[in-house]
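Reminder to self: tokens first, then the designed residues, so the page reads top to bottom the way the pipeline ran.
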């Protein structure tokens, strides 16, 4: 039996080709022009029952869709296939209601439904090009379900001339030019930072900013190549002045305008660019401090970093016997991430928010998949490699992928909870503030052992301290400081002198 449904049966061939075509020759040639996955068929229960039950329980999503399906697939099944192919791929389960209830498909209809889907996706009057499909017949509870898997691929697919995209659990039609352009950017990995502006001149860049970046790079790494370069050589070295080898266009690119341009140049290159920094202490509908940042990225980094430093406590934190600023580390990663890994052509306004729920950033992204990022399955993909490299040279960022590791390591010390990073059309990085913490514990990062070590190190350094001295130095309450000092005294690491009001603690090491 032939593998491809559209080749099975002479009636199908005769309906699609003129009478004088040699059908046997067509049958042998067509598989050569179809994607392998379009003619590849998986059968039998590859999906384990426990996995299938979990899918039914979680319901429809960006990559999961349920359809009833009786004797054949309905039109909206083809719309879903098109939207899956244009997004991140997905699984279409035929024989399941929207609520996850299995209605099943008669076993004798399964093969015919597969043939029908392949015939439709291979029909140029329906699809501009055939999306890849794989099938799996699942038997569950005495009923049959057909899984149609659409793998992620390059290319923009159209069904009946319309471009479909997947948004949550819905198939939507893209009509606006900007939406379709964003889809092409995502599918073909086009870096918009490389766009060349032939009439952008060095004089349009922020005066003195190239010198500042040269000095920063040289101070971080003695002998840095930028130290001996003039401005044009530095711009070429940093890939900010480039030549398009396809068109021959040469000049400063969008990355140069964003990194070093005057404010009016930045907004001319990316009119929607801005970052809204907001601090809310309690009320969700009001803000206590706000700053709208539209300057170039180098200047914006410093502005946003200072804004965060003003509204986030910096707890005392020891790494070995060395004190490190967890606030500065976390802020650097959060700010550099929202500035570097952003799709600057998107109209979505970036946000940096500090409130009682925690610290988070939101920015437009060109995502290759949707979902939560974890360190175990994280594969870093650069969104703007030129901008990222420039930030690395001046110490505003580290190598790709280090940001998530640093956030995983230090976020709990800052606000008491692990970071949550979600990729999609909008990238969200959030560090929740652990609820129910006393102010002293929150200031110390909710790490009691670390607070104890901090008090111990301070006592060893000063020799003698009161609870008030420790409280002022570590930004904790006097009551909390006294608790840790008493604990050190009980362990024989400190000695006491004086009554309750005048008590001082001495290093006993």
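Designed residues (509 positions):
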């Amino acid at each position: 039996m032939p593998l491809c449904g559209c080749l099975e049966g002479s009636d199908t061939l005769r309906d699609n080709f003129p009478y004088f075509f040699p059908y046997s020759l067509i049958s042998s040639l067509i598989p050569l022009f179809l994607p392998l996955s379009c003619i590849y068929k998986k059968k039998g229960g590859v999906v384990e029952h426990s996995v299938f039950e979990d899918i039914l329980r979680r319901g429809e999503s960006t990559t999961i869709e349920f359809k009833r399906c009786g004797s054949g697939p309905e039109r909206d099944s083809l719309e879903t296939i098109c939207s899956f192919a244009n997004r991140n791929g997905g699984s279409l389960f035929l024989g399941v209601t929207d609520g996850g209830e299995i209605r099943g498909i008669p076993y004798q209809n399964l093969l015919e439904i597969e043939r029908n889907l392949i015939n439709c996706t291979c029909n140029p009057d329906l699809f501009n090009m055939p999306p890849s499909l794989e099938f799996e017949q699942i038997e569950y509870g005495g009923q049959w379900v057909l899984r149609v898997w659409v793998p992620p691929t390059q290319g923009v697919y159209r069904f009946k001339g319309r471009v479909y995209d997947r948004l949550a659990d819905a198939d939507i039609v893209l009509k606006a030019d900007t939406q379709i352009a964003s889809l092409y950017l995502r599918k073909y990995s086009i870096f918009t930072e490389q766009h060349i502006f032939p009439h952008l001149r060095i004089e349009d860049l922020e005066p003195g900013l190239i010198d500042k970046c040269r000095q920063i790079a040289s101070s971080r790494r003695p002998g840095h190549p930028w130290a001996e370069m003039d401005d044009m050589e530095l711009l070429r070295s940093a890939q900010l002045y480039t030549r398009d080898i396809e068109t021959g266009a040469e000049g400063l690119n969008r990355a140069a305008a964003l990194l070093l341009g005057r404010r009016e140049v930045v907004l001319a290159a990316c009119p929607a660019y801005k970052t809204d920094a907001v601090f809310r202490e309690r009320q969700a509908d009001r803000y206590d401090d706000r700053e709208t940042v539209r300057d170039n990225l180098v200047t914006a980094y410093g502005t946003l970093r200072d804004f965060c430093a003003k509204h986030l406590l910096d707890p005392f934190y020891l790494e070995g016997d060395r004190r490190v600023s967890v606030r500065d580390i976390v802020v650097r990663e959060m700010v550099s991430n929202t500035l570097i890994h952003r799709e600057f052509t998107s109209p979505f306004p970036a946000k940096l928010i500090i409130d009682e729920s925690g610290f988070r950033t939101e920015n437009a992204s060109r995502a290759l998949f949707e979902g939560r990022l974890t360190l175990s399955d994280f594969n870093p993909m650069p969104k703007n490699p030129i901008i990222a490299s420039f930030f690395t040279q001046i110490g505003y960022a580290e190598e790709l992928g280090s940001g998530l590791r640093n956030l995983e390591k230090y976020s709990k010390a800052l606000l008491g909870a692990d970071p949550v990073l979600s990729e999609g059309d909008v990238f969200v990085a959030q560090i929740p503030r652990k609820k129910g913490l006393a102010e002293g514990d929150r200031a110390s990062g909710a790490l009691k052992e670390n607070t104890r070590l901090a008090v111990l190190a301070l006592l060893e350094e000063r020799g003698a301290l009161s609870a008030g001295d420790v409280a002022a130095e570590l930004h904790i309450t006097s009551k909390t400081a006294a608790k840790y000092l008493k604990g050190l005294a009980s362990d024989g690491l400190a000695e006491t002198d004086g009554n309750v009001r005048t008590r001082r603690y001495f290093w006993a090491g």
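The first helix runs from residue 10 to 16.
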